[in-house]
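ARCHIVE CARD
SHELF: 3
SLOT: left
DATA:
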Amino acid sequence: MYVNLYPNQALKRTKRVLLWGGAFMLLGGVVALLSEMVWQEQPRWAWVMATCLLIASAAWAMAVGAGKLHLKDAYFSMTPERISYRLNLYSPERVIYWSSIDSIQASIHTLVFELKDSKQVVMRLGNIQCNQTANHVSVSIQLAAVQQQVEVNQVKPKAQQVN
């Protein structure tokens, strides 16, 4: 199962916000830089460095918004061997193998994977833009956990089976 978490319309909206936000930040950065370099008698170098950082981040936002820099896909993928996902365009990819999952704690906003090595991996469903897609992902994981014999919300796998 593969679900694209950023449909084209949402991605276009995000890029438009980045483009216009970057343009606004770039304009403010240029005005601040001019004010420090031209209109001040003695330039404050810390402020000059800060405005240069603002201009650089604005240029990055505008490049992403204009499509010159490409973001990674936000997705959810589940196979009988593993779960992999990237919930944001800028977050790292996570891969969890079913064989390493001890139990799953599911709530409305998060899925907490308790791993066999006593670590936890938290999937924040609020990072998925569409609530219906987040619900679909959560239910799909819980149903697959039953099939994979993984405890869900402290219910043992044997108690979940239907005769």
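SLOT: right
DATA:
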Amino acid sequence: MSTSTSSTPRVDFVGDTGPVLRTGDTSFDAQLDRSLTAAMRGAADLGEVGATAGRITPGDLGSWRHEWRTTADAVRAEGDESLAAGHRVSARRCFLRACEYYRQAFFFARDDLTRQDLQDDYAAHVDAFRAAAALMDHHVETMEIERDGVVAAGYLLRPAGPDALRPTVIAPAGYDSTAEGGYLDAAVGALEQGWNCLIVEGPGQGGVLYRRGLPLRPDFETVLRPVVDWLVDRPGVDPAALVLLGRSFAGYLAPRGVTGDDRIAALVCDPGQYDFGRALRGRMGDAVWQRVLDHDPTLDADLAGLLADPQRANDFRCRMATHGVSTLSDYFRALATFTLDGLADRITCPVLVLEPEGDFASTGQSEPFVAAVGGPVTRHAFTAAEGAAGHCEGLGQFRFERVVHDWIATTLARPA
């Protein structure tokens, strides 16, 4: 999910000493919401999140990293202590919370892939998740693929017990997430339904970006194909019941993947995204967009105002690093290559398109996407009134899961 602010109504969580669970900084608080949703899954503690938020200096990116790292290290140490004493459940809980807190620590440090703090915090994030995975009740298998120039990694999680054939949810990471983060976003809910879940990261995501330096690529069908090849050979995977769940930027990646792989039985887009060049042109205007396309050498000087605010500049630079570019104009040109124009009619499986109120990622994208898709489309709008507005439904994650999981179960039950 993204750093942008959700339109979900803000709630002041008030303790004996005043407001908690808020830093007073808009960008920080948008990220803080992600740890609040992690608490739903036992991967964050509201008291720990509030104590950490209370120590952060608003607007200070260094303070954000330091305080989250401090909390993460303390919780990880407690997990190690519990494990050494034979308390596996307590240890697993600590490791999952530490995994979330390490993710928070490096979130704003992704502007330069060579940063040591990024590398250290990311490594700790992965290590904490794998320590938790070793203590989980269900099966966890690590996936690492390098084939024909494609690098992908992730984890296949399967319910405990015999490996009867089950549906499998494939959940690609988004713009700023990791395969490990996908455990909370997708895997926990799928496992509760009795399904398998493959959480996966490819170029421009997680360790494929931070460790291998491979930037995001628009042709996700090329990435998905070897992933599915690997998946269908695993025990307990029903090859006729593969569901692709794309959240945040994966709302583009997932449908793009389906355009080149007809083994996907159902597709969920949260939200649906169609053509980033068209979206950018709508926001920038025809004249400026033409300068982008013309590689106008004076354009970046004119765009410098977009980098005046330190936090906004950090957001842009993180995205530039994701695409392997160093200027705004190069970033906009790279983003414009991410399109489903002329390809979406290849998507013939059933599609669920989610439309959360106020989600910046779906602005102007949903209508052309729905119109171009070749298969049957179901649309569902989430609203602020029900507490599920903003990017990827904000704090309304159980509302999201009810709609998505019910649709998947119903869709897979229909005759082919």
